[in-house]
Specification:
By secondary structure, the chain is an all-alpha fold. Helices cover 75% and strands 2% of the residues.
Length: 257
C-alpha cells in the first residue's frame, strides 16, 4: 500500500522525471568523454581497459541512485513535528518509510534506469556480466548494497531528533558515500593506505562490491566472501539503526510526544 501510494505520487510529477532523465543523460555523456580523455594514449589503467572502466562507472552510477533511502523524509517528519502523530498510528513508521521509498525506487527503475541502460548498451557499449552466475550474484549484491544504503540513510534522518537541521549532514553523507563507495572511481585506483581504510567501511559494500562482481574485478570464491561481508554489514546497519531509533523514541516520550 505504501509503495503503491509513493509510485502514484512520483508519476504525478512528470516534470521532475524529465529533469532527472535529462540530468542522467548529460552525466553519461560527461563520463564518456572524460574517461576517453583519461585513457588517451593508454590501453589499460590498473588492469582496466577503457571499456571496463566505462562499464564500471555507468553501472556504479545507476546503483548509486538507489543507495539513498527515506532518511530525508524521516528528517522532514521530525522537523515539522509530524512524527508524534505518525508514532500514534497503527503501523511502524520505519516500515512505512522503507516501503514508500521502495515504491519510489520501482518508479525510478522503470522510468529512468532501464531506458538509460538501453542507451548505455547501444551508444557506450557497456559489457554484460561474464556468466549467468555472475549476473545473479550481482543482483543479490546490488540488493544488499541498496539495503545497507537505506539503513544508513535512515540513521542520518533519525539524527534530526537531536539537531535542528540535518541538511549539512546529508550533504556530507552524499559526498562520503560517492567517494568511499567507489561510485566516483573504483576503489582499486585509491592509494594503498586509502584502499585499506575503505575496505573497513560500509560504503564500499553499497556500490563497489556489486559493480566489481558485475565487471569481474571480484571473481571466483572471492565473490561469495564479498557477498557474505555485505550481508554482515546489512544486518549490522539494521541493528544500529533500530538501536538509534529506540533511543530517539525515548526522547519523544520524554518531551511528551
Amino acid at each position: 500500500m505504501f509503495a503503491k501510494s509513493q509510485m502514484q505520487i512520483n508519476t504525478a510529477y512528470s516534470a521532475w522525471y524529465w529533469a532527472g532523465t535529462i540530468s542522467s543523460v548529460m552525466r553519461l555523456m560527461i563520463m564518456f568523454y572524460f574517461w576517453h580523455a583519461v585513457y588517451a594514449g593508454k590501453d589499460m589503467i590498473q588492469n582496466l581497459t577503457l571499456q571496463d572502466m566505462l562499464t564500471y562507472i555507468v553501472v556504479a552510477m545507476f546503483i548509486q541512485g538507489y543507495v539513498s533511502g527515506a532518511g530525508n523524509e524521516l528528517a522532514q517528519e521530525i522537523r515539522h513535528g509530524n512524527i508524534a502523530i505518525e508514532l500514534m498510528r497503527p503501523y511502524d513508521v520505519i516500515f512505512k518509510l522503507i516501503f514508500m521509498d521502495f515504491g519510489g525506487k520501482i518508479t525510478h527503475l522503470f522510468r529512468e534506469t532501464l531506458p538509460l541502460m538501453v542507451i548505455a548498451f547501444i551508444f557506450i557499449h557497456i559489457t554484460i556480466p561474464a556468466s549467468p552466475e555472475a549476473a545473479i550474484l550481482f543482483v543479490i549484491s546490488a540488493g544488499l548494497g541498496i539495503w545497507i544504503g537505506t539503513f544508513f540513510d535512515l540513521m542520518i534522518g533519525i539524527v534530526a531528533f537531536w539537531t535542528v537541521n540535518v541538511w549539512g549532514l546529508r550533504v556530507l553523507k552524499e559526498g562520503v558515500i560517492t567517494f568511499f563507495s567507489g561510485a566516483l572511481v573504483p576503489i582499486t585506483l585509491f592509494p594503498g593506505w586509502l584502499e585499506t581504510i575503505s575496505s573497513y567501511l560500509p560504503f564500499q559494500a553499497m556500490v563497489f562490491t556489486p559493480v566489481s562482481i558485475y565487471t569481474g574485478i571480484i571473481d571466483g570464491q572471492d565473490v561469495y566472501l564479498a557477498v557474505l561481508i555485505q550481508l554482515g554489514w546489512c544486518l549490522g546497519m539494521f541493528l544500529v539503526m533500530k538501536l538509534i531509533w529506540a533511543q530517539a523514541i525515548k526522547k519523544v516520550t520524554i518531551f511528551g510526544g
